[in-house]
Design brief:
Helix content of chain A: 40-55%
CATH superfamily of one domain in chain B: P-loop containing nucleotide triphosphate hydrolases
Radius of gyration of chain B: 19 Å
Helix content of chain B: 25-40%
Order of helices and strands of chain B: EEEHEEHEHHHEHEHEEH
Strand order of the largest sheet of chain B: 6-7-8-3-9-10
Number of strands of chain B: 10
Radius of gyration of chain A: 31 Å
Largest sheet of chain A: 6 strands, mixed, barrel
Number of strands of chain A: 16
Shape of chain B: globular
Distance between the termini of chain B: 40 Å
Structural class of chain A: alpha+beta
Oligomer: heterodimer
Number of domains of chain A: 2
Number of helices of chain A: 17
Strand order of the largest sheet of chain A: 3-4-9-6-8-7
Largest interface: A-B, 24 and 27 residues
Strand content of chain A: 15-25%
Largest sheet of chain B: 6 strands, mixed
């Protein structure tokens, strides 16, 4: 209690210095919180968009499809499998998809395209694509509906209502089908706007020559919640057929997106380490100054019988208490400051000078990003900040350990 | 208090290239209950001798026996233990801890000793009362005069009931009135509680109160005089007339 009392009183005796030192930690942590809340929000948005456009949180595909993207690798009996997966993961939305490469022709030209076959109602519930229709409407129930990207529409000089022909080579034979342009979309991702088309699942199955088949059954669940369980339950639902399938979490289904997120995280951690180092140097300087000012006082304490270990504990406690106080304020302030960004979002597009859209690894991203609180991280930030502040007293403690009472009392 | 026995104590230190012989073989015995002044000109070795007896400095050679153990051979932690449990210190510059009140400064050593709270409170208040500061327990050092701060230092030095209080020029920063009052308090503690004092001093007021004066010159004891106990003149006269 004596040591705690001394440490607290010493922090209060030069309140201005204590507050200035604390503010370095507070602002550092608040800045850190802001950065990670935004980054976590951006990552969530990236994953949400990616699984919405191209995959699911869990995907069930024919073995080898993820690596080869070969249209011949299909999942048969899709209707039954969809029901089985829905029963096994009741909270998920189970979406069938077909992915093909083909040719789209109009009276004005032809382009190589990707053709994605979807269940329109189910797909619209989880994908943003229906929100990105700039002309016309999203795919309807008619199996002659097609929606295409804006850049593609311009390349082929087609508008809503125009006819186009999609061609697909199957077993050496060129299959073709007539479609009517129902809608034109703009995502901001060059690849999607220039090459992506979406048709009804039935139309894609006809082109593929396979009824009741798909390339992918995507499971959309709450972000990260129960991901491992969903993978396990999906595998169990597929029973003996699981050996002919690949059942993958999104990290494996979308490795470029995953790698981007990991790289972004690593960059952030490197930045944080540097920031932490700089703040720690500042605190070390302040602690050292405060110790040097009190050398004669330490000499008296040692002279009347305080042990060097007790003296070291007082200084360590000062650093620890300063760290606890400032780190707590920093984390709490970080939560308060970022609350509007979590609830209302931050419009990156406006900050970037009115940019409409952007893509990361080919995934179109909504530029109004909502921050996200990852509550697991903040106690870690707090603990690391307290540890760094306490560690910054190590050199001043070493300095005092070399004091003898007489030398200390004569210190100028 | 056990006696302190000093034999052939030497202290040499280097001042640049020059060797300074601060103590050149001091022999001295200190008895319980003494009120002793070490006097001598500047550089005679008074403070050096005090610091070595207090375990604050190392001797070059010789011995300082405390409770039969040679302080010169003790480790740093053993000396720290000795200072905590057997010695008290009063410094010229008071050396109070600025963030603690008068009560807390006086209590400091008892806390380090692990004395229980109730006993600490009783002893500290009793000692503050004995030094005339009963109503100032809650004041910080910057709220006390120099004399009051020195009284707190005396309370801190004595409250742990040390074998010996070492006082290095305790009146140097005080005016004569304050010095006289402080010395009377310390003398009273010496006489009523048997606390032994060893002063390093130039102050004639201290020498007036001391019952033993040890004069150091050039690092050796030049003179060691114990004053005779004052005779009771009235009893002597009554006895003579009887």
């Amino acid at each position: 209690m004596l040591l705690l009392k001394l440490a607290l009183r010493n922090l209060r005796r030069n309140l201005r210095r204590t507050l200035i030192t604390s503010s370095a930690i507070v602002f550092g942590l608040t800045f850190l919180m802001f950065g990670t809340v935004m980054q976590d929000g951006m990552h969530r948005e990236t994953v949400r968009s990616a699984v919405g456009f191209m995959a699911g949180h869990v995907v069930v595909q024919g073995k080898g499809f993820n690596a080869e993207r070969d249209a011949a690798i299909v999942v048969d009996g899709v209707s039954a499998k969809r029901k089985a997966l829905q029963a096994a993961v009741p909270d998920a939305q189970v979406i069938p998809r077909i992915f093909m490469g083909g040719l789209l022709t109009s009276p004005n030209g032809s382009m190589g395209v990707s053709i994605t076959g979807v269940d329109p109602k189910a797909e619209a519930a989880i994908s943003d694509l229906d929100d990105r229709i700039v002309d016309g409407e999203y795919v309807g129930d008619a199996d002659t509906d097609i929606i295409i990207g804006k850049t593609l529409a311009e390349s082929l000089a087609v508008e809503v209502g125009d006819k186009v022909v999609a061609m697909f080579q199957r077993d050496g034979i060129l299959e073709s089908q007539l479609f009517r342009v129902r809608g034109i979309f703009k995502t901001g991702a060059a690849e999607m706007d220039g090459f992506m088309t979406v048709v009804h699942l039935k139309a894609a199955q006809r082109l593929l020559g396979k009824e009741d088949a798909a390339h992918q059954l995507a499971l959309i669940i709450d972000y990260e919640r129960g991901l491992d369980a969903a993978v396990a339950n999906a595998a169990e639902a597929m029973g003996a057929e699981a050996t002919t399938l690949e059942i993958l979490p999104w990290q494996k289904a979308l490795p470029e997106v995953y790698d981007y997120i990991v790289l972004d995280d690593v960059s952030m951690w490197i930045f944080l380490l540097l920031l932490g180092f700089i703040v720690a140097i500042g605190i070390l300087n302040t602690m050292l100054m405060s110790v040097l000012e009190r050398v004669r006082e330490f000499g008296t304490m040692l002279a009347v019988g305080m042990s060097p270990v007790q003296l070291a504990q007082v200084i360590l406690l000062e650093g620890f208490l300063l760290g606890v106080f400032a780190s707590t304020v920093g984390v709490v302030l970080g939560v308060i400051v970022t609350y509007p960004i979590v609830t209302d979002g931050l419009d990156y597009g406006a900050l970037m000078g009115g940019v409409d859209s952007m893509d990361i690894s080919g995934v179109p991203i909504n530029l109004k990003v909502h921050g996200f609180y990852d509550w697991v991280k903040y106690p870690v930030f707090w603990a690391v900040s307290v540890a760094l502040t306490t560690l910054s007293t190590v050199y001043p403690v070493w300095f005092t350990s070399r004091l003898t009472p007489m030398r200390a009392m004569r210190h100028r | 208090m056990s006696d302190i026995s000093i034999r052939d104590l030497k202290k040499t230190y280097k001042d640049g290239d020059i060797e300074v012989h601060a103590l050149r073989g001091v022999n001295l015995d200190l008895q319980s209950g003494e009120f002793t002044a070490l006097m001598g000109p500047s550089g005679s070795g008074k403070t050096t001798l005090l610091n070595i007896i207090g375990g604050l400095d190392d001797a070059t050679s010789g011995s300082v026996l405390v409770d039969g153990k040679n302080l010169v051979d003790m480790s740093g932690s053993q000396r720290s233990d000795l200072r905590l449990n057997r010695l008290g210190f009063v410094f010229q510059a008071y050396n109070l801890i600025p963030v603690l009140t008068a009560y807390e400064n006086a209590e400091f050593v008892l806390l380090l000793q692990g004395v229980p709270e109730a006993e600490r409170k009783k002893r500290v208040m009793d000692m503050l009362d004995a030094v005339g500061l009963a109503g100032m327990a809650d004041r910080r050092p910057d709220e006390l005069s120099g004399g009051q701060q020195q009284r707190v230092a005396v309370a801190r030095a004595i409250v742990s009931e040390p074998a010996l209080v070492l006082a290095d020029e305790p009146t140097a920063n005080l005016d004569s009135t304050t010095s006289t009052g402080l010395l009377e308090t310390m003398k009273k503690l010496n006489e009523e509680r048997g606390v032994s004092f060893l002063f390093s001093t130039h102050d004639p007021l201290v020498m007036e109160q001391a019952n033993r004066i040890v004069r150091l010159v050039d690092g050796t004891v030049a003179d060691d005089t114990t004053k005779a106990a004052p005779s009771n003149t009235a009893d002597a006269s009554a006895g003579a007339s009887a």
